[in-house]
């Protein structure tokens, strides 16, 4: 099975996925930028990491994710590959959220309904791999998936980093060639898939550290030193209280140089 086969399978699934189009979105706390159906995501980027990559072990360091982070073969015994994908938000979702402070209705849909779509896409990919005779599992939908002190035992962003999809920003988002405004999914499998190269050597190779995300953060959680997840969570909890069941922010991922591309390198 080739990487292109996975790309085609995911694109085909997204094209026919009803959840990618919200037929009649409601204007929640803020008005919609335009009437009519709302498309959430553009075509995905796909990468494959080796389950034997030594970087998986480094994620267990206390200053990265933590010792509770499970390696690929803990999810699928004999795992050989981890497929990661990045779904970029459509221009309508991104542009709506460029306004300051209040989260755009379009972004709330992308964060909440979009989260279910990402999980469904990952499950569809796992089913495709199983139909081809391989074992495959989606860690974030597995009963063993857990979050401790805002750190999960499976990090989608780090999986995408190891799979060559992108590097981290000052705001701790992942910057891909399609930018940072989007969602990430992953599947662990024992299929011997061809691994994609990492065209970078450092965690923040694609971040220019321009600081544009600092004033964009309504929780003041981002500084030149990085991001504090505590204030970010408090702010997002506030959006949940205002928009239940939807929530989200995404200001640091919009109206920044890395919103939909890799910014100029340092």
Automatic annotation (TrEMBL):
Domain 4Fe-4S ferredoxin-type: 197-227
UniProt xrefs under InterPro entries: 4Fe4S_Fe-S-bd, 4Fe4S_Fe_S_CS
Molecular-function annotations in GO: iron-sulfur cluster binding; metal ion binding
Keywords from the UniProt entry: Iron, Iron-sulfur, Metal-binding
Lineage: superkingdom: Bacteria
PANTHER family reported for this sequence: IRON-SULFUR CLUSTER-BINDING PROTEIN (PTHR42827:SF1), IRON-SULFUR CLUSTER-BINDING PROTEIN-RELATED (PTHR42827)
Record-given protein name: (Fe-S)-binding protein
């Amino acid at each position: 099975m080739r990487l292109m086969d996975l790309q085609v399978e995911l694109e085909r699934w997204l094209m026919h996925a009803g959840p990618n189009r919200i037929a009649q979105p409601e204007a929640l706390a803020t008005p919609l930028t335009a009437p009519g159906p709302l498309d959430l995501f553009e075509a995905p980027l796909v990468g494959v990491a080796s389950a034997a990559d030594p970087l998986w072990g480094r994620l267990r360091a206390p200053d990265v994710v933590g010792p509770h982070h499970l390696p690929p073969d803990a999810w699928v015994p004999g795992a050989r590959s981890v497929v990661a994908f990045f779904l970029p938000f459509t221009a309508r979702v991104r542009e709506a959220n460029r306004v300051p402070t209040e989260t755009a209705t379009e972004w709330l849909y992308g964060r909440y309904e979009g989260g279910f779509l990402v999980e469904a896409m990952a499950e569809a990919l796992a089913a495709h791999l199983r139909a081809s005779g391989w074992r495959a599992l989606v860690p974030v939908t597995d009963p063993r998936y857990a979050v401790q002190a805002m750190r999960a035992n499976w990090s989608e962003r780090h999986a995408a980093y190891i799979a060559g999809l992108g590097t981290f920003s000052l705001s701790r988002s992942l910057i891909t060639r399609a930018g940072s405004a989007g969602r990430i999914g992953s599947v662990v499998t024992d299929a011997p898939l061809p691994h994609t190269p990492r065209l970078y050597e450092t965690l923040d190779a694609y971040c220019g550290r321009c600081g544009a995300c600092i004033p964009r953060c309504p929780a003041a959680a981002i500084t030149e030193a990085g991001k504090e997840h505590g204030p970010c969570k408090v702010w997002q909890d506030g959006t949940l209280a205002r928009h239940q069941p939807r929530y989200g922010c995404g200001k640091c991922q919009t109206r920044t140089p890395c919103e939909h591309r890799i910014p100029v390198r340092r």
